[in-house]
Amino acid sequence: MAEVNRQIVLDQLPQGKLAPDHFRLAEGPLPAPGDGEVLLRTRYISLDAANRAWMQGATYRSALNAGQVMAGGALAEVKQSRAAHLKPGDLVFADTGWQDYAVLPAAHLAALPRLEPITHLLSVYGIAGLTAYFGLLKCGRPKAGETVVVSAAAGSVGSLVGQIAKIKGCRVVGVAGGAAKGALLVRDYGFDAVVDYKAGDTRRALRAACPDGIDVYFDNVGGDVFEAALFNMANHGRIACCGAVSQYDGAAPAHGPRGIPGLIVTRRLTLTGFVVMDFDDERDAALAELKAWVDSGRLKVAEDIIDGLERLPAALIGLLAGENVGKRMVKVA
Amino acid sequence: MAEVNRQIVLDQLPQGKLAPDHFRLAEGPLPAPGDGEVLLRTRYISLDAANRAWMQGATYRSALNAGQVMAGGALAEVKQSRAAHLKPGDLVFADTGWQDYAVLPAAHLAALPRLEPITHLLSVYGIAGLTAYFGLLKCGRPKAGETVVVSAAAGSVGSLVGQIAKIKGCRVVGVAGGAAKGALLVRDYGFDAVVDYKAGDTRRALRAACPDGIDVYFDNVGGDVFEAALFNMANHGRIACCGAVSQYDGAAPAHGPRGIPGLIVTRRLTLTGFVVMDFDDERDAALAELKAWVDSGRLKVAEDIIDGLERLPAALIGLLAGENVGKRMVKVA
Questions:
Q1: What ipTM score was computed for the predicted complex, to two decimals?
Q2: Most CB atoms within 10 A, among A281, A299, B30, B260?
Q3: How is domain A127-277 classified at the CATH fold level?
Q4: Are the beta carbons of A271 and B267 separated by less than 8 Å?
Q5: Which of B255, B262, B275 lies closest to A244 in CB terms?
Q6: CB count, 10 Å around CB of A166?
Q7: Is-above-0.90 flag for pTM?
């Protein structure tokens, strides 16, 4: 076991775009677990757009402060346990933060099933997979033959949303940045069409790709793409509001999308915001269904694994710029 | 029967605020019904904020054009019938437009029940009552003990929404313009509190009136009041999007409310737009429940009746300025 605990500290809260010098590398002593606690070794740290939103203010968790170890969820291994239900070697998902080791109360931690590759516990069987599953099926409620649009379609959640919508018999249009991502989504992930939001008029491009309107829009990005989709919704359409990555990396936006609430009324739309924890009761059933789809080859899992704790700041900044395909994570150990 | 058919024509489409000179009075011959049609005498014409929205473009109906008789729903009496299911003397609700007489296909018209006062067929047993009933109960889904906020609270829909929410055991806060309306809502309609949106910071006033947040917001107005409510929603709150009267009387707004979709996600809100026709299947059951509440004195019906066809333009302009309390209509005959 390493003698020191490398940590990446959020040195300053960003005012505008997140940059490498908002972080600094620090070292701390190896912490020791107290009664009811565990010492965890981080293995893979999950990178998520929400990490940036936490810097803006309170969300479903309290805001981050300058000077704290950067928060983040990780797949971690129990090294020492002072709790009855966990033993050394168990894998857990925990908010370890960006560091080699963390001591956490064990009460809310549960040993994960053993499966290979273990990175799937952070992608398709982790928050990304459950977010795609519950957001699409519970909030979007797609029916076979409907048109589903998903933004950030090449991301960890979007790539799964599109494939699950195909499994459910829908026509699927992805919104992603750049021709290369679009080609990949059609070729490897079965999307019916893609719209490149960097290529110009997204509203017009969506109209062309969805001539009968959008029945379900799974929104990962907010902002202009949200607005473009809103203006193309079919009557009785559903919008699953999952995140707003376009709004996270900068100052808070002054204005919201046009057409609200007018279009919501005239087209009888439903917008539903959700956070994956709201569906904990149905988690096991969802994981079983996801696993069946993965095992049968119907659901492909894209992962983007970067090596080395020190690369976490660059990995997050790159994620916010849309450079990843699939679930981005950093391998720590 | 009058020899001529007085008509109010939408002479020009307004670019900014609606004004009397956008209309002109005309006279036409008395129309004659063809096979399957009826000749209707308008009795009471309904004034609705939606009348103004129809001038902006296509909504749930096609846009109005300059030069046509102004559209509008009315309580009308059958004078001549060439359809088997309607006879002279029957009352119907029909889109007669703003004129003394109209000939319409009978296929979609149904004789209304006879009850007194017949104006209730345009208010609590008409679109206003059903809109309040379905919007609150189906989209808002209030539970006893929750806090319900309704805007345009002194209007035809709002005054009923507030009272129905009280019947369902909720705490009710109305948003209305001016101290007089607010006092009336508390004194005569049982509202627990009111916020005067003309008095300043609506967001702060709503926070004070709803310290635990808003569980259900019934939105009739859009714009700044919508935004103020959005920032005060409780987790898992529901917003019933009924209309956006603040947006109708002018050019289309450049920007929407701030906080969308960010707040929708973090507070897990649901926004649902609806149009009352979507609930036609459940209309009879709703009317029976509304009637039981009215008959027992639990639901008070506010009506604002103006006399004379020629006063329709001023009546609509005044409605858009918020001068009415309860359901505004013009008595034609």
A1: 0.91
A2: B260
A3: Rossmann fold (3.40.50)
A4: no
A5: B262
A6: 18
A7: yes
